[in-house]
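Lecture 7, part 2: worked example. A protein chain together with pyridoxal-5'-phosphate.
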Amino acid sequence: MRYLSTRDPRPQPETRSFEDVLLAGLAEDGGLFVPERLPVLDAEAWRTLAGRPYAEVAARILSLFAGDAFDLPELSQLTEAAYGEFRHGAVAPLVQLDERLWLLELFHGPTLAFKDLALQLLGRLFDTVLARRGEHVTIVGATSGDTGSAALAACRDRDALDIFVLYPQGRVSEVQRRQMTTVDAANAHAIAVEGTFDDCQDLVKALFADTALRRDLNLSAVNSINFARIAAQVVYYIAAGVALGAPGRPLSFCVPTGNFGNVYSAHLARALGLPIDLLAIGTNANDILARYLTSGDMSMATVIPSLSPSMDIQVSSNFERLLFELKAENGAAVAAALQSFRQTGALPADEQSWRRAREMFTGYSVDDSATLETIADIYRQTGMQIDPHSAVAVNAARRALNRDGGTGPMVALATAHPAKFPDAVEQATGVRPPLPPALADMMEQRERMTVLPNDIAAIAKFVRAHARRTRSSRPQPHRGAA
Ligand SMILES: *Cc1c(COP(=O)(O)O)cnc(C)c1O
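Predicted complex, written out as structure tokens:
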């Protein structure tokens, strides 16, 4: 499969390989990579997926996207390694909540959130490609909690990678901090910055802007817009669909959404032929996407802190991939619309695109009090505790069933383990959710971190001193900052 940039203005856009897309993250023109053309799974392809283990379904689906770079046996090895350490044999198990409603549990990976499903594989894909090329990269990133821990867990102990994650000291939860600081690996570094998350992001940008450092250490990022992450996320939609009777029986999904990455993967699964009836988006009070779907207005607002912090996002970066499709794959039109969005804070009105988007998605905004009510309600009904992000999905899923009906089962995505957000869950249920046994000793383990001032010289010095390689082995391609 070949990929093109969402901002390429040429009538015959340049196409890139999966390997280029994996390593580059972002296109040179600032656009995001999307597949040039998607295959549709035929009856035979669906039969080979039925009843197969998750890792095998993953290898087969990934081979559609990455078949040029990896053969099927190689992909199988990588997916078995990536998902073999998940705490649940099914990797992404389905749990029935009531007659129509199911939960898809995506939190059985090492850091208790759905980002593990993509990042555990991404770390291995990176490492494999780099080893093949005899190259090494230094990954730097800023985190407000979740992505950093998943990235550290995914990159630890990989020969071709070093990773440095900057987080704001004293401003992440204890579980999030321990998930970063108890990673005991020579190539993985958690840096507590004496500053805010914005300071951390600025420091990472400054590291990328330091041309000598960037060249010497081959700086890279495992950012949320990397298409390999999107591809890895397609897998659980297909696996859940097959388990519930697809392609013979349609089903619906409800996805708690921030950057639009997860739900865009569902959209691709539908393009591959998964019969998705309703595709519902749940947002918290930061509801730019829900507002857009309701009214056609996509305008920026200030971020409101919520009980589901991983969705406290103003601008959903992956929406650009959908916009490319809505604008009939016209890269110049996408670039112009986004430039205007950045300048004015609002996407220029486009009635035709909006109508098409509404045929594809429905959106629901769920505020904190509705989130707590949903956690309490599910606990009363089933005895299960769900985290605030998952509760946004369940609340939106129920509203979608009531309003739009849909045919077949409705699957709400559970994107984090309740113990990752214990305060909100305890507030709603009166019971503090325990960590899974395999992680319980994290609270006693020794923490390893470096505290550094909010000062680019100090950070750059530390990264230089601790990165294991200090010479780039090939000309520096554009790799997109975090
Ligand atoms: C990142 C995250 C989300 C949002 O996913 P997007 O792909 O950004 O839409 C939802 N829930 C949890 C727990 C997350 O960590």
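Residues 113-115, 146, 256-262, 310-311, 389, 415-416 surround pyridoxal-5'-phosphate (CB under 6 Å). The longest helix spans residues 115-133. Keep this in mind for problem set question 3.
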